[in-house]
Amino acid sequence: MKEFELKYGCNPNQKPAKIYMKDGSDLPITILNGRPGFINFLDAFNSWQLVKEIKAALGVPAATSFKHVSPTSAAIGLPMSAELKKACFVDDIEGLDESPIATAYARARGTDRMSSFGDWIALSDECDLTTATIIKREVSDGIIAPSYSPEALELLKTKKKGNYNIVQIDPDYVPAEQEMKDVFGVTFEQGHNNCKIDADCLTNVVTEKGLPEEAKRDLIISLITLKYTQSNSVCFVKDGQAIGVGAGQQSRIHCTRLAGSKADLWLLRQSPKVLNLPFKEEVGRPERDNAIDIYLSEWDSNVLADGKWQTLFTEQPSKYTAEEKRAYLDTMTGVCVGSDAFFPFPDNIERAHLSGVSYVAQPGGSVRDDLVIEACNEFGMSMVFTGQRLFHH
Q: Which of 2, 22, 161, 393 is catalytic?
């Protein structure tokens, strides 16, 4: 297939629209089902690069959940505890422990379920039946993967009344060294971003406390995730899973606050008070997800007030006070944070500390680097300067 005609571009009025290879060669994809659109393909090609690079860097299957050209999360296929499965709404999935690619997607989808609603999925490895079983019941626009088992493909083809977008990509495809795009009739050309992110990027430790080996994996996940997140961006990672992505903010501190608030919600979702909410059996996953989000917000009366809690719970839950939430978050440590450009002020470090951050990776290069380093030392954090900016637009 040398080109594919799209229904329209970013918006219905933007016609005609298509994708094709400038050199006239075949596209590196096969559309196995559905008819992906312009934004679907932007998500597909960005998300595929992300999971392919994480797999190459760490040697573990990876998955991501994308929305509007940024990841809501990315994760690798590590074993999941019973509590984590429940927090990700996959505690009823059979065979999950035997499928690393399924646990990778379960983690990626489960982190920020509200943002992942209607996602585009990318898998570094073959989509198996267990992964397809998770996807089948979620609201999703499509998936890209290097291959699909026959059983997985058959199941996914039944999704969205047979119209679910399923794309297979050639895992050996390498893009041209130069890339171009047009904006307002003007052509931009640049070299493809081939920067390699691995443990070699994490050697320049600038704090009193060094960087332990166990933190390197999560910092690599953070940095590769940032490489494919709309800038400015900051990414929090814990236990092989991006737990807070702050994308597309004009101010670095707003990136950190946004990512930190998402990380806090994820950490709180795993607290006993949330895991033990007495939901009625008939309440579905989307309703439970929304109820948890409201329960953890300042508008918790919308699910706790008389006349409202009865529709969701078998008994009225107690309020999760601000003091209780702060006390729980204060027990968190070992979180990693990466930034796609330097932290200009120590306020970013101060905010990261509130979400249990112990390890930091950023390019460095601010005139106030000394103040940022001082803040890390004050909080007992390890920080590395990568010397590598990761802007993505």
A: 393
Which two structure tokens, joined as six digits, stand for 135? 């996807």
Please tell me the pTM assigned to this model: 0.96
Q: Is 68 a catalytic residue?
A: yes
Tell me what the pLDDT averaged over the chain comes to: 96
| C-alpha distances out from residue 40 to 35, 157, 188, 352, Å | 9, 17, 22, 32
The answer to whether 393 is a known catalytic residue is yes
Residue 232 is a catalytic residue: yes
- The H or E element that residue 235 is part of is strand 233-238
The set of residues, in sequence order, having a beta carbon less than 8 Å from that of 184 and lying 6+ positions away, is none
pLDDT value at residue 214: 87
Which domains, and CATH codes, for the chain? 7-174 (3.40.140.20), 197-268+329-385 (3.40.140.20)
For residue 340, give the 3-state DSSP assignment: coil
Report whether 106 contacts 90 (CB < 8 A). Answer: yes
**Residues 43, 228: Cα–Cα separation, whole Å:** 10
How many beta carbons lie within 10 A of that of residue 211, not counting itself? 23
